[in-house]
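Re: that backbone. Tokens:
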């Protein structure tokens, strides 16, 4: 199963308001470029949340009581990219933007 999300700066900004993350790397493109990135960065928990959503759909109600997810961020997720998040029948999670793998991990019931 997969979910496609077009990441925007507005989404990144709104997520930052929700979780209280004021790190400038999420909001200031010049700062992000000085740090070697091509643009601002999406929040890691925001990206992981899309994977958790797929896990909840896959595992149903049990996910909310016994679900656990583990991910590794291997590349940044930028605004103005389509992120494709997938989970296979074994609970393996992958998030990609184009050919770039951004996140790998697994979701399971304990």
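Recovered sequence:
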């Amino acid at each position: 199963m997969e979910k496609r999300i077009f990441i925007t700066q507005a989404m990144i900004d709104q997520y930052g308001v929700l979780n209280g993350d004021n790190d400038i790397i999420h909001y200031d493109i010049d700062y992000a470029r000085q740090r070697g990135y091509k643009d601002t960065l999406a929040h890691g928990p925001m990206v992981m949340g899309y994977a958790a959503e797929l896990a909840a759909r896959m595992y149903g109600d049990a996910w909310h009581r016994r679900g656990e997810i583990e991910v590794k961020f291997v590349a940044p997720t930028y605004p103005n990219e389509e992120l494709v998040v997938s989970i296979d029948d074994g609970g393996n999670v992958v998030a990609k933007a184009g050919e770039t793998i951004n996140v790998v991990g697994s979701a399971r019931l304990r």
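The two ends are 21 Å apart (CA to CA). The beta strands are 2-7, 67-73, 81-87, 92-97, 100-109.
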